[in-house]
Amino acid sequence: MKHVLSTSGQRKSLYRLFGYCKDTEAMHVGEMTNGSAKTAKELTMHQADQLKKKLVTNWAKFNIGNQQHNYILSLMRQLGWTIPNDKHGEVADMARLSNFLKSKKSPVPKPLQQMDTKETSKLISCLESMITKKYK
After folding, report:
1. pTM given for the model
2. What's the per-residue H, E or C state across the chain?
């Protein structure tokens, strides 16, 4: 069966989702293809659709019963990653966390719900380090 390569429209959409960052593109394309490709041009139409679906998903969904997830919310507030909310004043900016997790800056580029305890600890260490640098 012949695999049809991604269309220019699919690639443009993916480039926007990558933030036009070649490193982020290589990271996500490599993960999608198990390392066999590095650019969106090398993806099939199906792979491009799957990757887009993955990237538009909210990676910051958390489990309220998970202490690590609650601590991440606290760290986000300390970093100033908040948005105004009519009912609750300031709340954590989950879109910002989701975009961070999808970026090459994330120590664990995967959705929060899919991280194990060790991976979540890595994320926490990264956020704590960012707070330390912010207040130095």
Report:
1. 0.76
2. CCCCECCHHHHHHHHHHCCCCHHHHHHHHHHHCCCCCCCHHHCEHHHHHHHHHHHHCCCCCCCCCCHHHHHHHHHHHHHCCEEEECCCEEEECHHHHHHHHHCCCCCCCCCHHHCCHHHHHHHHHHHHHHHHHHCC
